[in-house]
Design goal:
Layout lengths: L5 H16 L4 H36 L1
């Protein structure tokens, strides 16, 4: 879905966000989005690691 946006689409999104939120709110929004994405990646890695550990434990029991 986001693969077809391109540079003009990103510029349009940035201009619309700047108009809606104003220049003072954009850094706050960017930080919040970044921290949310970081937490999501961390949780995903932990879930994958837990799943892998469970598979190894099952194989050892058999």
């Amino acid at each position: 879905m986001l693969q077809n946006i391109g540079m003009p689409g990103l510029m349009l999104i940035l201009v619309i966000a700047l108009i809606i939120f104003g220049p003072s709110k954009l850094p706050e929004i960017g930080r919040a989005f970044g921290s949310t994405l970081r937490e999501f990646k961390k949780s995903t890695r932990e879930l994958v690691a837990d799943d892998t550990n469970a598979d190894v434990t099952k194989k050892k029991e058999n």
